[in-house]
Each structure stands twice: as C-alpha cells, then as structure tokens.
Amino acid sequence: MNRFINIGHSNMVAADRIIAVVSPDSSPVKRLVQDAKEDGRVIDTTAGKKTRAVLVADTGHVILCALQTETITARLNGGGESAEAESAEETERSEENDVNG
Asked: Which of 19, 21, 86, 94 is the most exposed place for a label (fewest CB within 10 A)?
C-alpha cells in the first residue's frame, strides 16, 4: 500500500515514487524544470508561492513544492509531529512574507 506525504497546501504525493528531493537554485535543476515544463511533466503544487524544493518522481514528473527540502526529506524519512509543526510554522512565515513583502 502506498504511503502518502503532505507536500504543502493540502497536496499529497506517494512517498515510494519520489527518487530525489533537490534545491531549485542550481542551473542543472533549473534546466530540468524547464525541460519538464516544455514536455508537460511539471506538477506545480506551490499555490503561487516561491519554489523551495523540486521533487523528481520515478515517472519522470517534476514536482514543484513551496516547502523546504529538509521538511520534505524529514517527512519522507517518517518524521513525526515535530516535522508537521515545523512545516506549519514555515508555511505561516512564508505566507506572512508574501503578504508583507
């Protein structure tokens, strides 16, 4: 049975389908995202927020996520309530920053 993890904004992904969680800042990852956009393989779950993590699925899909790579990794590794609470605070801070700046 698949285990799903929350990747923010009420979006879930099958944990066993994720092969990489990477930062969106490097040129190779930017090219990966651009190529996936051109091929229609991008799934944007950021809800208009800044992309802070890029998930690569075994299907070739590239998932854009507004949560930090560390938060996603903790959830993939079975992080408990502390990871959930940290993520809620992180999302709240992100939303405040978007409103204020």
From this structure: 19
As a whole number of angstroms, the longest Cα–Cα distance in the chain is 42
Question: What is the per-residue pLDDT across 11-67, written as a single tens digit (0 to 9) for each?
Answer: 999 999 999 999 999 999 999 999 999 999 999 999 999 999 999 999 999 999 999
- Could you give the CA distance from residue 82 to residue 49 in angstroms, rounded to a whole number? 23
Q: Which domain holds residue 86?
A: 4-100
pTM: 0.78
Count how many domains the chain has.
1
In this structure, are residues 33 and 23 in contact, taking their beta carbons and an 8 Å threshold?
Answer: no
